[in-house]
Amino acid sequence: MKNLLTPFRMIIISYVLSIFLFSILLWLPVSHKPGIDLTYMEALFTSVSAVSVTGLTIVNVSESLSVTGVIFLALAMQVGGIGIMTLGTLVWMLFGRKINLSQRLLIMVDQNQYQFSGMVKLMRGIMLLALAIEFVGALILGTYYLQYFETAGDAYYQGSFAALSAFTNSGFDITGQSLIPFASDYYVQFIVILLIFLGAIGFPVLMEVREYFITKERHYNFSLFTKVTVTTYFFIFIIGGIGIWLLENGMYFDGLAWHQQLFYSMFNSATVRSAGLSTLDVSEFTLPTLLFMSSLMVIGASPSSVGGGIRTTTVAVMFLSLKSFALGKNDVKVFGREIDPEDKQKAFMVISFFIFGLFTAVTVISALEQGNQSVDLIDIIFETSSAFGTCGLSTGVTANLSTGSHFVLMALMFIGRVGIIAFLFSVKRKDTESHYRYPTERIIIG
Amino acid sequence: MKNLLTPFRMIIISYVLSIFLFSILLWLPVSHKPGIDLTYMEALFTSVSAVSVTGLTIVNVSESLSVTGVIFLALAMQVGGIGIMTLGTLVWMLFGRKINLSQRLLIMVDQNQYQFSGMVKLMRGIMLLALAIEFVGALILGTYYLQYFETAGDAYYQGSFAALSAFTNSGFDITGQSLIPFASDYYVQFIVILLIFLGAIGFPVLMEVREYFITKERHYNFSLFTKVTVTTYFFIFIIGGIGIWLLENGMYFDGLAWHQQLFYSMFNSATVRSAGLSTLDVSEFTLPTLLFMSSLMVIGASPSSVGGGIRTTTVAVMFLSLKSFALGKNDVKVFGREIDPEDKQKAFMVISFFIFGLFTAVTVISALEQGNQSVDLIDIIFETSSAFGTCGLSTGVTANLSTGSHFVLMALMFIGRVGIIAFLFSVKRKDTESHYRYPTERIIIG
Ligand SMILES: [K+]
Ligand SMILES: [K+]
User: What residues form the membrane-spanning segments (chains A, B) (predicted)?
Assistant: First the structure.
């Protein structure tokens, strides 16, 4: 029995239980607006999407959910976003129990951390920091929203949900049309982009930055993880913005002022890397832009963040490995450190599994949607990448898909959020050390 | 100077020189039928396609090329297919020079071999075996074709070209419509499938099988390479056949007799893994089938064969690694041997590079073909996979693409044939051993 409950399995079970809990809460009549009924399937899809902080929907949240329903939704986003295990830790601490090794291990695994020491402190720190950021974000957006909404209650309700949706990168909205009403309000967009960054850059990064400011050390040593993920995150953000601008220059952006082009490019590059909020109807973009955005959704955000995808570090290790391999070197050096071979191995697993899963899902959905005239191949590729990268951007076809396709998307959102490493480890029976060895024999590759 | 001419670079230069040589030969008026003119671009594309044994064309070979042109084309396929370095070796041997270490290294690298000893013997063996198989194939098909063609000359001309095209997996045809005229002649299809197998299964496998029959040892030790690649090749062949049948059952196959369904499934599963000959118009297949076939083209054939793609062993190592990783094991065992970590590393490089290249190419071509109404996304995905996997199957849009897209396809065919490992190594300046080490630091992946 003990062997069956490995840390990875417990995490997966926690996610599954949360999904079922919230699916039932969202299914209850009290969660719906008068006269609206959700099928269990709709409630389940919404719950999977919320707990995996994806944001794809088959119901119109603003038209279907009551205030109670929206609060359940926000809770699901919080539980899924800041991490089931982080919340678990808080509960453990509230009950005053000393965290033992096996629970530490559990947390370490969920946040994919390697250092044991100070883990409890780290978890509490992450939780407090996340809540603080969300609170400040809600305050800023809510106060600013006073000009847009009739009552202060409405303004802070909308502002809080937007801040939560942005920081947890969950991409849900209660405006009914994402951030499109704020398409020319650059202040809102700037705050939202900032919140998206803070959620997607990785909790360890936030903790280190906080420590940097607290200690005021002149030579604070940021971890290799922080250096790699921050550099990669912003490098791809810039590439993404320039790429979208180049592809839509003269197309969708034709005739727009420079600042509109700048903000559309910037906002889309930020949101496509896991957030899922939008300031325009992405289905208006051209085919190459949608393909380019699909690849950005596949890349996603930092590990140990609210974002999904194959993650920044995986992509960084891939390119660094290709470069050092082409140069005939065995070691991968970056920022005065070497990448551990095991991490290279993990990056390989993640990329292989992700690409295989993505391609299989696209093929299966295209088979299930034979004869569905409202769905093109690019829609399937876009929605699939969006689900697996837990991004939530959509060309608008999710609701038109069949139940079979909805199950495929739910599976992708789930695995995308749990993380491929955790998912792969969850199937293993126990730590197995090989008791025997075979001779090694070379084979020809590629 | 010596450092600049690494073995990998010499191979690439040989391919480049062959391509230019044959592009000029195919451009000459003597290569064209009366009244037909090829632009240099058309000749270049044909040459790249032939030397890389791909088979994509922007000209109708049977209508444009004279007998001289067809002979040049066949020579280009032979040079590219059986291996520039194998031919090089033959030339060296004809001149009676003893092959020195650096030339041996060159051959080893081209055929991606690890064992030095007996390399020359192996090369001569491969060459003779290849020519023998082609000769027997030409004889069988030519003789059988006597019933179809008016003169014996025509029959053997057509039969020889078909045998060469099948064995080198180059996919060119001089019938004007591939093997569609033989769609209900299962004897021709059976012989062609056999020739495709022999070319795509890998030269080392053929040599070992020959040795097995010569030595008549009861316990002949086949190499790990042979076991892995033969198993994977036929396993995916069966999966491919069943997959195509499942996806087209009730669609394209609707109303066909069981034997027609069987042969269409089998032939397509065989041809899609690098051969490129066809017995039907693949554009008639449904979207999921075309996606499934694209993934089979990406997988391709064995290394050290006439086929392309990421190759069987790469796929096998990927799945075996995923399995052993999920089971928590560090070593990858198969057939009583362990996979060398360096080969795992190579598989990672090949997959990463291939997927990145493929996605970039699809996006770039879709940007170049904006407004080209005759091209759908699935066509772009299919042609791109076909070019990179040097398969040559086509939904028929290659000729409709712009010059920019043609250059992208040529680059893919070239890299696909040269092999990603060789391509990556060709950019390196010299074997570099790191003179310094950094401390290793773990980062979070996926
Ligand atoms: K999201
Ligand atoms: K081919």
Answer: 6-28, 71-95, 126-146, 186-207, 228-247, 285-302, 347-368, 407-427
Within-domain flag for A282:
yes
Provide the 3-class DSSP secondary structure of residue A316.
helix
- Residue B222 CA to residue B204 CA, distance in Å, equals 10
* Structure ipTM over 0.85, yes or no: yes
Sheet-wide strand order for B333-334: A440-441, B337-339, B333-334
Q: What is the model's pLDDT at position A389?
A: 94
Residue A221 lies in a domain: yes
CB contact under 8 A, A363 and B337: no
A1 lies in some domain: no
Query: What are the tokens at A287?
Result: 């085919």
Strand duo A333-334 + A337-339: pairing: antiparallel
Angle at A173 between CA A169 and CA A175, to 5 degrees: 150
* Parent domain of A39: 7-426
Residue B23 near residue B40, CB atoms below 8 Å: yes
Phi-psi domain of A202 (left: phi exceeds 0; alpha: psi -120 through 50; beta: other)? left
Q: Does B97 have pLDDT greater than 50? A: no
- Separation of CA A63 and ligand 1 centre (Å): 20
- How many domains does chain B fold into? 1
Report residue B159's pLDDT band, with 50, 70 and 90 as the boundaries. Answer: very high
Tell how far the Cα of B162 is from the centroid of ligand 2, in angstroms. 13
State the Cα–Cα distance between residues A155 and A139, nearest whole angstrom: 10
Cβ-Cβ contacts under 8 Å for A443 (sequence gap 6 or more): B223, B224, B225, B228, B229, B313, B317, B339, B340, B343
Report chain B residues whose CB lies below 8 A from the CB of A370. 251, 286-288
Backbone dihedral region for residue A221 (phi beyond 0: left; psi -120 to 50: alpha; all else: beta): beta
pLDDT-based confidence at B418, cuts 50/70/90?
A: confident
Cβ neighbours of A229 (radius 10 Å):
27
Nearest chain A residue to B313 by CA: give it.
A445
Task: Measure the CA dihedral A208/A211/A216/A217, to 10°.
Answer: -60
Interchain CB contact of B121 with A (< 8 Å): no
Count of C-beta atoms within a 10 Å radius of residue A307: 30
CB–CB of A424 and B114 under 8 A? no
pLDDT of res. B87: 55
Q: Are A445 and B314 an interchain contact pair (Cβ–Cβ within 8 Å)?
A: yes
> Which A residues 228-267 touch B at CB under 8 Å?
228-229, 247, 251
The pair of three-digit structure tokens given for residue B303, joined into one six-digit string: 């290394």
A residues 22-81 lying closer than 8 A (beta carbon) to B = none
Query: Residue B255 contacts by C-beta under 8 Å, 6 or more apart in sequence?
Result: none
Flag whether A48 is in a domain: yes
Query: Which residues between 76 and 105 in chain A have a beta carbon less than 8 angstroms from any beta carbon of chain B?
Result: none
Nearest chain A residue to B439 by CA distance is A337
For residue A6, the model assigns a pLDDT of 58
Instruction: Using CB atoms within 10 Å of the CB of residue A64, give its burial: 0 to 12 exposed, 13 to 18 middle, 19+ buried.
Output: buried
Summary mean pLDDT of chain B: 85
Q: Tokens representing A203?
A: 């909790």
pLDDT at A394: 94
Would you state the pLDDT for residue A343? 84
Q: What is the pLDDT of residues A15-61, one digit of tens each?
A: 899 999 999 999 999 999 998 899 999 999 999 999 999 999 999 99
More confident residue, A65 or B322: A65
| Closest Cα in chain B, distance from residue A152 (Å) | 42
Q: Place A163 in a pLDDT band, splitting at 50, 70 and 90.
A: very high
Contacts of B399 (CB under 8 A, 6+ apart): B57, B58, B59
- What count of Cα atoms within 13 Å lies in the side-chain half-sphere of residue B308? 38
Q: Residue B156 above 70 pLDDT?
A: yes
Nearest CA in chain A to B376: A377
Residues B325-351 have a mean pLDDT of: 84
